[in-house]
Amino acid sequence: MKASAGGYARAVDVPHALELMAGSAGAGRYLAGGQSLVAALNMRLSEGDMLIDISRIADLSGIREDGDHLRIGALTRHADIGRDALIRTHAPLLSDAVRHIAHAAIRNRGTIGGALAHADPAAEFPACALALGATLHAQGGTGTRDIAAEEFFEDVFTTTLAEGEILTGLSVPKAEAGEVQVIEEVARRSGDYALTGLCLVRRAAGHRLSIFSAGPVPMLARGAMAALDAGDLDAAVEALRAEIDPPSDTQASGSYRRHLAGVLLRRAVKRIEGDRA
Ligand SMILES: Cc1cc2nc3c(=O)[nH]c(=O)nc-3n(C[C@H](O)[C@H](O)[C@H](O)COP(=O)(O)OP(=O)(O)OC[C@H]3O[C@@H](n4cnc5c(N)ncnc54)[C@H](O)[C@@H]3O)c2cc1C
Q: Where's the FAD-binding PCMH-type domain (predicted)?
């Protein structure tokens, strides 16, 4: 099946994109890498859309240092994140995550902003943003605003971006000396979305653990984080399994996903302990 007839306009900058969106009578959809949106349009999940192509807005691409943070433009492609030296040094969780995302062709087009705005509960970057304590930057008709990653993911494919708002980028704190960041997941085949996955960050102030593909949104597993801070891995596994309520679907049962979460936590801790040695 192919997408229904609709409109297309290429935005030259963010104000232009906002203007096109405001004039689209509710039919506007921002087009970034198109790797999720075009598939959805081809399946006719919506019809008569007006595509507002933001993919060539140069200001929204790239990675730079901003004091003790890295600022990542929303249009930065997955593949560029995977090979960027600043990311590898200061936010290695994101480099590590890229190898789990789809296939090379999709990673060459898909953007981090698109992945965050799309808010697939099985996607890696939303969970990374949570574990890192990222701040997301948005721009709309009334100005710019910052949104904590913890406030961004509202429901399946739903975020707290307002109607027409553009995600312009995100800031992640640079890893401190001795910080360790890992992602672990299980997928049926390489490149598939995860059956379940998690991101674990160990900082001097404590652990941050986010879990994805275990509920409608990625979430911080606070009970497990507290148990990890107390040095009790068995209690952390138990707490993690208790605080998630994973769905059953054609890929896996909820109870299998809950079991996997504990297995993945043990693997992640083994990896970060290995890094300490
Ligand atoms: C076969 C296949 C396998 C995949 N496997 C995985 C996987 O394992 N893990 C994973 O994480 N992803 C996976 N993806 C999705 C891929 O990572 C997408 O690239 C990503 O989810 C969306 O990014 P995009 O730039 O392509 O966004 P688009 O498809 O262009 O847009 C997606 C949605 O976000 C909105 N949007 C995009 N950018 C912005 C912005 N800056 N501001 C506001 N709204 C915006 C669009 O309007 C649209 O609603 C897969 C995709 C395919 C086709």
A: 1-177
Query: Would you say the CB of residue 119 lies under 6 angstroms from ligand 1?
Result: no
Domains and CATH numbers, the chain: 7-53 (3.30.43.10), 61-173 (3.30.465.10), 180-276 (3.30.390.50)
Given ligand 1 and candidates 21, 31, 35, which is best to mutate, with the most ligand atoms within 8 Å of its CB? 35
Instruction: Convert the pLDDT of each residue in 249-273 to its tens digit.
Output: 999 999 999 999 999 999 999 999 8
Q: Provide the pLDDT for residue 277.
A: 42
Q: Whose CA is nearest to atom 11 of ligand 1?
A: 123
Q: Residue 26, by phi and psi: left (phi above 0), alpha (psi -120 to 50) or beta?
A: left
CA-nearest residue, atom 4 of ligand 1: 102
Q: Is 123 in the pocket of ligand 1 (CB under 6 A)?
A: yes
Which parts of the chain sit beneath pLDDT 70? 275-277
C-alpha 91/C-alpha 69 separation (Å) is: 9
pLDDT in tens, 23-60: 999 999 999 999 999 888 888 887 778 999 999 999 99
Cα gap 197→193, rounded to integer Å: 10
For 48, phi then psi, to 5°, come to 70, 25
Is 117 touching ligand 1 by the criterion CB < 6 Å? yes
Phi, psi of 56 (to 5 degrees): -105, 20
Q: Which of 116, 8, 105, 9 is nearest to 60 (CA)?
A: 116
Cβ(224) – ligand 1 distance below 6 Å: no
